């Protein structure tokens, strides 16, 4: 292979590597916007009763606002998911018909999603 061909292969490889998606990109488990309020309330109860620290969604907590079932459920659903190895099972099985995975970090202000 000529030096010029080698240079072209290296350049093309470098460009391609920088455009490949990362296999280990982080995901978050959040409430689907189409979820029914009753299901979100059940999700809140389940997560808070099963080891999730729900203090951040209480009044005055970092994740209290927006004070909506969707906002609060998203935080606790992700906290449960994060403490259970971030498996699809920990998101979709325990929060049926109301959970979705996203690669967009839902954190905002001082409310940090694990």
UniProtKB/TrEMBL annotation:
Name used for this protein in its record: X8 domain-containing protein
Signal peptide positions on this chain: 1-25
Keywords of this entry: Glycoprotein, GPI-anchor, Lipoprotein, Membrane, Signal
Membrane topology, record value: Lipid-anchor; GPI-anchor
Compartments (UniProt record): Cell membrane
Transmembrane segments: none
Record domain X8: where: 27-113
Main location: membrane
């Amino acid at each position: 292979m000529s030096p010029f061909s080698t240079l072209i292969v290296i350049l093309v490889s470098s460009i391609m590597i920088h455009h490949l998606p990362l296999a280990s990109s982080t995901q978050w488990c959040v409430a689907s916007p189409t979820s029914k309020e009753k299901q979100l309330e059940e999700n809140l109860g389940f997560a808070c009763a099963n080891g999730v620290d729900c203090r951040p969604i209480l009044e005055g907590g970092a994740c209290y606002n927006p004070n909506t079932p969707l906002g609060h459920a998203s935080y606790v659903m992700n906290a449960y998911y994060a403490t259970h190895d971030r498996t699809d099972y920990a998101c979709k099985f325990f929060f049926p018909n109301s959970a979705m995975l996203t690669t967009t970090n839902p954190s905002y202000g001082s409310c940090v999603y694990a």
